[in-house]
Automatic annotation (TrEMBL):
Recorded GO CC terms: cytosol
Gene Ontology molecular function: ATP binding; DNA binding; hydrolase activity
Signal peptide interval: none
Source taxonomy: Bacteria, Pseudomonadati, Pseudomonadota, Gammaproteobacteria, Lysobacterales
The protein's name in its UniProt record: Type III site-specific deoxyribonuclease
Gene3D superfamilies from the UniProt entry: P-loop containing nucleotide triphosphate hydrolases (3.40.50.300)
Family annotation (InterPro entries): Helicase/UvrB_N, Helicase_Restrict-Modif_Enz, P-loop_NTPase
């Protein structure tokens, strides 16, 4: 099969929006070799008339659906070799799946045709994107040669032995160099920064990086939001570009935005599949709930210790995220819940936490829900949607292959002696095949339908990876298969239709005929939901390689392990609302927030702390047992017990509907819910509801010390119609009853609460509350530049803030003035006013 490419109006608009910027502003050098293009030896002789570029910018942005601009925003940076650089940057925003890579290659060829430019560096940040770019070059070779018959071009991949010399040699052919930024940002160890053993004809003994910088290439930056750290900005500047063209669906720094194709507009034009979501909400398993979000180091007074962010149940009914250190007892931290007895943190590493009772928890892992039943529901609904889609395709005689994709958290879930996914898939496929009305004798062997692509070693041992630079060699082997052999998967003669892959395959991997994606994982990154959608947004192709533009077929179904509301709200946060974009993969950028000793030790702060450091406890008078039992039995909140169902997963389905700003506006009322697999409780003893309710009362946010006879009297008065839920979900039943008892007691006794100060030894200690330093992986707000929605802002030197930076959240519309105004407010008061207010 060969993919067929046609001229698309939306791509033509993106191309012309860039090419028109340089009309009359790209001044070609007058001297050169006869018969060679002006840029054959590089673009050092080219001049960009920035005044003309600014006028063209105004003309282009006025006609495009973006804010009109007439001022160039330059990147001004000192590079890794301590050379100052400045150059224009222009941004193109295109929704995932609309041909972004095609658009920037075509833009480069148009610039070459119109202005004689010949050297283009395509800068990427992952192996997957690099492999995808190379694949696009291979697929579009015939298309572009027919479109530009008099324009020869070649592409090279940085890392190949002759890539830099071939790219640098003077040639009238257009030269592309595909480079991973991680191959450029390490001067101390990268051979590009070392002098060559043998000089070449054109550049003498110049280092590889010096050769690239002398060429002044045009930079085509793919996903620039992943290259916004100070180190990577310097790396970009080290290439000494003539101009940088930035392409992404999720820009972080827009610079001069000249074209926008939003998610909503792409869907309206039929350029991508529409998206439906099935959310599988996990039912409880009866185990203590634990979800390990992350483990990270924190420095205090020069000592580094590990802290774990762990989500647990707490007395009172709500789950909370706790930041814990080794030695923490979860029973105490949860407010005394009995299910956490023995869960004392023994040790932790970068990736795993161990308890004294032998239980271990990896980052992203969840206990307390029946993960296998959630997986079964997800796999079941993915297969069901796949078979339905295939039936629809066959009825329309569209001659295309339907694919489904599963992302797994760990390779061992699919390949190991105890792997459950292959057996689970095969069994569920057989069930769903019969359920769909197909004949059992026509059913293929499910094992022949599934295929896996995992990062692996040279000897074929599959590995878990996270996309880091030192894991590239493992990932390359997976990408070579899943990207280079994309056409083989689309062949109807190939039975493989269900793809199992590792979660590290994010940007850069897609297949146009993926119609269903099941995410058998729970961790959430800052952009994961949008990346999930992006893996299947492209329009499908038939066996002739032509796009199929049938709106009834072109729908992508995501099967996720969260409610639709959680998915919708998380997706909106990732899209960032009206034109804003979330921060992504910012592991190289961190700001250390340090305590200011002179402020912390100042008399003003000491006086304030003396007034707010107290702690107290409260007492409640004895309640009337009969009156309390009657109040609970008739309380309206008991009606919540009637809604308790037998434990089961919940499957939610709805379509994503966008507003004009690209936000998902699908309402909760449009969500369809069905029951998933029931959680079977075998061999479990009948619950001791008296003990459960007592635990909730004794260890909640407002503990109540009721005697057991009082609790028994209250429970005995509860009407019989409410008792069935105690069997189906005893923990939830007890939480509701305890909440009602607590509410009734507080309503009767609130006037008799007495607060008693505790001993001075238990008062708050400022040295414990305020850490010496804390590292934040948040963007730094810089005066004069658009402020990030959430980040850290440097505190004024003459302010009274305890720390040298302010950590702010997204609810500040303009964080810098707001933060600084807040910081300076305290210092603006007179000392007498501050003392009085304290």
């Amino acid at each position: 099969m060969k993919f067929r490419f046609d001229d698309q109006p939306h791509q033509a608009q993106a191309i012309e929006s860039v090419v028109d910027l340089f009309e009359g502003g790209a001044l070609v050098p007058s001297q050169g070799v006869v018969g060679q293009a002006p840029g054959a030896a590089g673009h050092a002789g080219f001049q960009l008339d920035r005044g003309v570029l600014a006028r063209n910018l105004l003309a282009v942005t006025t006609r495009q659906a973006v804010e009109a601009q007439d001022t160039l925003i330059l990147m001004e940076e000192t590079d890794l070799l301590e050379q100052p650089r400045d150059f224009p940057n222009f941004s193109v925003e295109m929704e995932t799946g609309t041909g972004k890579t095609y658009a920037y290659i075509a833009t480069a060829l148009r610039l070459a045709e119109a202005y004689g430019l010949r050297k283009f560096v395509i800068l990427v940040h992952t192996v997957a994107i690099r492999a995808g770019v190379v694949k696009t070059f291979e697929q579009t070779r015939e298309h572009f040669r027919a479109k530009y018959p008099h324009l020869d071009y070649q592409w090279h991949v940085l890392g190949d032995s002759q890539a830099v010399p071939d790219f640098a040699d003077p040639s009238s052919s257009v030269q592309f160099l595909v480079a991973g930024i991680s191959s450029l940002d390490k001067p101390a160890t990268n051979t590009l920064y070392a002098s060559p053993e043998q000089a070449n004809l054109w550049n003498g003994g110049a280092t590889g990086i010096a050769q690239l910088a002398q060429l002044r290439p045009v930079l085509l930056i793919d996903e620039p939001q992943n290259m916004a750290t100070p180190k990577r900005r310097k790396t970009i500047a080290t290439l000494n570009p003539l101009v940088a063209l930035r392409y992404s669906a999720t820009h972080r720094d827009l610079y001069n935005l000249v074209h926008r194709l939003s998610a909503k507009r792409a869907a309206e034009l039929g350029l991508v599949k529409r998206v439906s979501v099935k959310g599988v909400v996990a039912g409880a398993s009866g185990q203590p709930y634990l979800h390990l979000k992350r483990i990270q180091p924190r420095t205090q007074r020069g000592t580094t210790r590990w802290l774990a962010e762990l989500v647990v149940d707490v007395a009172g009914g709500d789950r909370q995220m706790l930041v814990l250190v080794p030695g923490a007892d979860l029973q105490d931290e949860s407010g005394g819940l009995a299910q956490y007895q023995g869960y004392v943190i023994e040790s932790m590493t970068r990736s795993e936490l161990r308890f004294e009772n032998g239980v271990t928890l990896a980052i992203g892992q969840t206990m307390g829900v029946d993960s296998l039943s959630v997986w079964r529901d997800q796999v079941r609904h993915t297969i069901r949607a796949h078979l339905q889609k295939q039936a629809d395709v066959e009825r329309r005689d569209l001659d295309l292959k339907v694919l489904s994709l599963f992302f797994v958290e760990r390779v061992a879930d699919y390949i190991s002696d105890t792997a459950t996914l292959p057996v689970m898939f095969d069994a569920l496929f057989r069930e769903e095949w019969v359920r769909s009305g197909r004949l059992a004798e026509d059913m293929p062997d499910p094992a022949t339908l599934r295929v896996h692509y995992f990062p692996s070693t040279k000897i074929g041992v599959c590995k878990d990876t996270s996309g880091k630079a030192n894991e590239e060699a493992f990932e390359v082997r997976a990408y070579d298969e899943i990207i280079a052999n994309k056409e083989k998967l689309l062949d109807l003669a190939n039975p493989r239709a269900f793809i199992f892959s590792h979660s590290a395959l994010r940007e850069g991997w897609d297949n146009p005929n993926v119609f269903q994606i099941g995410f058998l994982r729970h961790t959430r990154s800052d952009t994961e939901r949008r990346q999930q959608i992006g893996r299947g947004l492209r329009l499908p192709v038939n066996q002739d390689g032509n796009r199929v533009q049938d709106e009834a077929i072109n729908r992508l179904t995501l099967v996720v392990d969260e409610s639709f509301s959680e998915f919708r709200d998380g997706l909106n946060a990732e899209y960032g609302g009206a034109g804003e974009r979330p921060d992504v993969e910012n592991e190289d950028h961190s700001v250390t927030i340090r305590l200011r000793p002179e402020k912390f030790q100042s008399p003003e702060f000491e006086a304030l702390w003396r007034r707010i450091r107290y702690r107290a406890v409260y007492r409640i008078e004895r309640v009337d047992e009969a009156a309390l039992a009657a109040a609970v039995a008739g309380h309206e909140h008991l009606d919540g017990l009637r809604n308790i169902q037998r434990r089961a997963n919940v499957v939610q389905s709805a379509d994503l509907v966008y507003d004009d700003r690209g936000r998902v506006v699908t309402t909760d009322e449009t969500i369809a819910e069905t029951s998933g697999e029931r959680v079977v409780l075998v061999g479990q003893q009948l619950p001791n509801v008296v003990q459960l309710v007592e635990d909730q009362l004794l260890h909640g946010k407002f503990p109540l010390q009721l005697t057991r006879p009082t609790v028994v009297a209250i429970l005995s008065a509860i009407p019989a119609r409410y008792w069935a839920g105690a069997i189906h979900d005893s923990g939830y039943w007890a939480r509701i009853v305890a909440h009602v008892i607590r509410t009734a007691v507080i309503e009767q006794m609130v006037e008799n609460i007495e607060y008693v100060p505790v001993d001075e030894a238990r008062w708050w200690d400022a040295n414990v509350v305020f850490l010496d330093s804390e590292t934040k992986n948040k963007p730094l707000a810089v005066p004069g530049r658009p402020a990030p929605a959430s980040g850290v802002a440097e505190a004024p030197i003459d302010g009274v803030n305890l720390y040298d930076y302010v950590d702010y959240d997204s609810w500040w519309k303009n964080p810098l003035p707001s933060c600084w105004k807040t910081i300076e407010a305290w210092s603006s008061f007179s000392p007498s006013y501050r003392a009085a207010s304290a």
